[in-house]
Structure formats: structure tokens, C-alpha cells
Amino acid sequence: MAEQIRVCERYMMEREVILMKRLFVLAVLIALILSSCQVNETPSVPTPDFTISPTEPTVNNQLDPDLLGQVWYWRAFLSNDDSQHIVIKNPEVYTLQFMENGIATMQADCNNAGGEFIQQDSSLSFGVLEITAQYCGDDSFDMDYTGYLHDVVTYIIEDGVLHLNLKMDAGDMIFTAAADTPLPLLADLQPDEFSLVGPVWYWLGLQSMDDIHHIVVPDPTNYNFQLNPDGTVQIQADCNTGFSAYTLADSSLAFEPIVTTKMGCPPESLGSEFVSNLDYVVTYVFEDGLLYLNLAMDGGNLIFSTDPEPGTLPF
Question: CA geometry: angle at 152 spanning 150 and 157, to 5°?
Fold first, then answer.
């Protein structure tokens, strides 16, 4: 009997322990459920008491309105010493446009360029220009154009003509608002005053003083030279090319020693004679659209044209 009572007591204690464990587990589950149901409230962020206006482009009200907006066409460069005048035959591919945001855009023959400009009163200057790098041909003025713009310091607009004045009184770039606007100031110039520097000059022949030893160049496209505004000259002598510097003053013209490549040209080539004769040039003159380079000691005249097929020679 006593043994049965002890068994019953042990059974009741075990049941009580099991019940306590179950109650503990249940309490933990209820606590987890309640915690997962809580809503986390995000603290409110105060709304700014201002609004941001969209940024508008800054307009410099000091810029000359006569300068802005329209396309300007480069018509000529006139040097103040009358030695390097250039008249542009195709001004429609040499343009300049000033924008209200202080940016200038240009077309330089087959290339495009652009950059900042600063204008105040009559002062005008260009910053570093970004330029494409296409080759526009030997007779192009694209590099001269952008080079002159780099040296601009002042400007003036007279009778619808824009004059950009270069530093050190080097000369003026002339622009008009239309590519075909008549320019009396250019009409007053003689062709020989502006055509020496810039164009490619093709050698047509040698006129000897004895009227016996004349030379007619069979293919003038193989023999030419080009005077650059920076005082350098580029030369093609048949299959070779050359480089030198020149001095130009009034009607005097002289070349410094010419450095050429040393390719072997055909036996009938006139390349060596061409370069040798250029070393003896002392003066020049224009006549009937042809350029005559006069050689020292009555050595004769080298005859050139901007057209490699000009027609009949004067001998």
C-alpha cells in the first residue's frame, strides 16, 4: 500500500514538472509573437521651408549685342606691313559665331573649333580653342585662321564689317555678316599685295635672260612651295619634300638654306634644279596673274601660278 502511494506521488511530481515546462515554452512563444507585431514608427523628417529654383544660364549683359548671334564670315587678313595680305576665296567655310554664354564656335575649312571668349568694351580675346584635326589640303587656311584668332586683342565694327585686331599691331582679320558682301577695302588692293603668303605656288618654268635656256616644267603639281605666315616655307621638289624659312620685305624675298629629303627621283626630275634655283631668289614681282621670282646675277626668273595648268607661258 505504501509502495503504491509513493508511485502515485512520483507520477504527480513528474506531471507537474512537464506542465511547468509547457507553460514556460508557451510564455516564450507569446512574448515572441507580441514583439513581432509591434509597429516601428519612423520619426518624421521636417519639411524644408524653401524651394530650389531651376538653374538658369548666366547671361553677360556687357557683351556687345552687335557681336552676338549672327555668323561672321572671314574675308581677309590684312597685315600692317603690306607683306602678308590674304583674301579668302571661300569665306563660307571660315566662320565665327559668338554666343551669349561666352562661347565662340568656328568653322575652319574642313575643321570645327570652339572655345571661350572674353569681351569688354573694345577688348576681345579667345581662350584655348578645341579644334578637330582633319587635313584640309595644302591650300587651306585652317591653321592660319585659328592661329590668327589666338592673337586677337581688340575689335571694332564699322559699316557692318567686323575687324579683329591682332596683338603687336600685326594686322586685322576682316569679317562680314554675309559671305558675298562687297568689300571696297579689298577691291582697292592689287592682287600682288595679298597673294604671296598662303597659297600653294606651282612652278611652271624658268625664263632665262638669254632667251635660249628656258625650261618648261612638264608637271607643275610636282614642284611647288607655300609661304606660311609664321615665316616658314614648305617645298615639294618632285619626289622629295623640303623645309626652310624665308625673309620678305617689300619686293625682296630670300630663302634660308633648304633642307630636303633624299629620295631618288627619276632621271628626268627637275627636283635638284628647283631647290638650287630657290636658293638664288632675291626679289619677286607679279604680272598678269603669274608670280616671278627673280634670281641673283640675272640668273633668270622662276615662274609660278596658283593654277598648275595656267595655259601659255610668256616665252
Answer: 140
CA-atom Rg of the chain in angstroms: 42
Kind plus residue range of the DSSP H or E element containing 166: strand 161-166
**Helix count and strand count (H, E) for the chain:** 4, 20
**In a domain? residue 274:** yes
User: Domain check: are 260 and 281 in the same one?
Assistant: yes
pTM attached to this predicted model: 0.49
Closest CA to 88 of 79, 97, 76: 76
- pLDDT tens for each residue of 72-109: 999 999 888 766 678 888 999 999 999 999 999 999 99
Domain that holds residue 95: 71-193
75 and 184, same domain (yes or no): yes
Closest listed residue to residue 197, CA positions, set 164, 162, 169, 171: 171
* C-alpha span between 156 and 162 (Å, rounded): 6
Per residue in 279-293, pLDDT (tens digit) is 999 999 888 778 999
* 77, 182: one domain: yes
Cα 230 to the chain's mean position, in Å?
17
Indicate the burial class of 166 (C-beta count within 10 angstroms; 0-12, 13-18, 19 or more): buried
Cα–Cα nearest to 238, from 264, 258, 216: 264
When divided into structural domains, the chain yields a total of: 2
First-last CA distance in the chain = 160
Instruction: Return the CATH number at 300.
Output: 2.40.128.270
Whether 133 and 185 map to the same domain: the answer is: yes
Same structural domain for residues 213 and 183?
no
